[in-house]
Amino acid sequence: MVHWTAEEKQLISSIWSKVNVEECGAEALARLLIVYPWTQRFFDNFGNLSSPTAIIGNPKVRAHGKKVLTSFGEAIKNLDNIKTTYTKLSELHCEKLHVDPENFRLLGDILVIVMSAHFTKDFTPACQATWQKLVGVVAHALAYKYH
Amino acid sequence: MVLSAQDKTNVKGIFAKIGGQAEEYGAEALERMFSAYPTTKTYFPHFDVSHGSAQVKAHGKKVAAALVEAVNHIDDIAGALSKLSDLHAQKLRVDPVNFKLLGHCFLVAVASHNAAALTPEVHASLDKFLCAVGNVLTAKYR
What we know:
Largest sheet of chain A: none
CATH superfamily of chain A: Globins
Strand content of chain B: under 5%
CATH topology of chain A: Globin-like
Radius of gyration of chain A: 15 Å
GO cellular component, one term (chain A): blood microparticle
CATH superfamily of chain B: Globins
Subunit structure (chain A): Heterotetramer of two alpha chains and two beta chains.
Order of helices and strands of chain A: HHHHHHHH
GO molecular function, one term (chain A): metal ion binding
Family (chain A): Belongs to the globin family.
Distance between the termini of chain A: 21 Å
CATH architecture of chain A: Orthogonal Bundle
Number of strands of chain A: 0
InterPro entries (chain A): Globin, Globin-like_sf, Globin/Proto, Hemoglobin_b, Hemoglobin_oxygen_transport
Number of domains of chain B: 1
Helix content of chain A: 55-70%
Structural class of chain A: mainly alpha
Oligomer: heterodimer
């Protein structure tokens, strides 16, 4: 079980309360597909991913980004129980989706950059450190049931 | 991984926007890295890594200068950073994984000060550039 200090919990919730899950999720996923184009391999059925403009405007990317970040919110609601929260999702990503867990780390880092751009000076080094820990824990939990 | 003409334009563009503040970005990237990835501090046992540290500022300046040098010689980063590459291979021997960490933190610093300029395309180019720099610095490791 991961230990979160009171300060870390505060840094997580104060940032999260101001996040627009739909916008932020869409942006994070779009940037993942743009900055690391090989990640597009999982989204053959998403239609037009041929350029950054196409990716940003792609409605399936937006919808999926929102889905992913909404799920992230579940982790934040269950900080003391993230592994259990993600058991089924982990199995899904392994057995059905066949996603290399490295991709969770890539998306986590992209999310941190999106947060930094959004919160600017409020995204202090201490804030970033907490969020790096969180995305790391989420990535680990999503990879946990892999076999 | 090759930097396209557009990548080079994007990187030069964002560094032009950063301008004289590159040194501060260098220091901030280091501070973020030490904070988020404590293992990176093992390379600086002799440093005061607390916020505002003069040593971190000075080192940030060095890091920034090297990045600017690479940008100014973006067609031959290996040539421009050859001596630094030797230094890292023979003396410093920083594990290659750490260059990704510092590169990431540099991106976070840029994002926090220049969100509008860090479009997805520029983000991609800058990430590629920082990877290329890391690759050059570890190229002679073995």
